[in-house]
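Quick bug: Histidinol-phosphate aminotransferase output formatted oddly.
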Amino acid sequence: MSFVPANEGISKLKPYQPGKPISELERELGITDIVKLASNENPLGCSDKVKEAVAAELAEIGRYPDGGGFILKDQIEAQFGFGHERITLGNGSNDLLEMFARAFVSEQDSIVYSQHAFAVYALVTQAINAQAIEVPAKGFSHDLDAMAAAIQANTKLVFIANPNNPTGTWFEEAEFEAFMQKVPANVIVVLDEAYVEYFPENFNSLKYLDQYPNLIVSRTLSKCYGLAALRVGFALASVQVTDYLNRIRQPFNVNHLAMVAAVAALKDEAFIEKSREVNKAGMAQLEAGFKALGLNYVPSRANFILFDVQADPAQTFNALLKEGVIVRPVGIPNHLRVSIGTEAENAKFLTALAKVLGLDAKA
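Here's what came back:
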């Protein structure tokens, strides 16, 4: 029996590398006092109301979830004002990003995305063997003018992120409006807002959904809502776009406990506000720490900061592991990304960073 190779895109694909788990570092180095600041998780965990809601539904584990996701779509509609027919549920937003590409892009088409953007954009493009058009970043930010100019006749989809991961940079509404006016109506624009809840005053994307039928807004409950382990995301779009997405969506892609947790998380506004407060305080703590160490960083509107280690990032990353601190290499020369943790976690990171770089904090 001869070997049948995978399609060209898959055969050349390098899998996405998630942040290093605590358990893996424990096995490798035999240390237990570990701080994980690699995956932009909520340091508060999840809301107590989420835990209560999930515990009350444990008896339902033996049954399939509602494939239509009625209870979660109902809560999304109540909170954001878009009907069920405009909502697509995902197993985290990564699931949605893959759906967007599969629904609208063929091997003969191209996808546009920015340099220094979320790694999954390139991965889903390669997985379907489409043409990748990576537009050079402007500093560490999306160059929206250049991205609009890069759209070709065969371009079917553009990925943009606000705020951007891994750089934390963001764009304003005026920049977005100017960009959308340049994008042809037959090109889907995916606005990835995985971190929008941390600074919601920065940008109101939802008001553009009726104006631009080719716009998809993608969100996740893994970050500010603290449901990373349960994998829940959702997309808002026109009725037509949503119809196509739900034709290829797996019928049980969001499990019942995840939907129950998501409904409780969306309702708990007090927890979200507390998460914002902890994030803003932690960001100020890390910014002050970087300044004291004489290190440059990229201002962020997310729950992480990209910073310049002034050295080999791989070497610094590995040295921090030995100090029990997990951060994230992101493929940008001289830079690492650190998630914002609790006050104690941030302090441990800054102490370890000073030690491995041989720096003294300036008062």
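Actually, after a second look the formatting is fine. The chain is about 40% helix and 15% strand. Closing.
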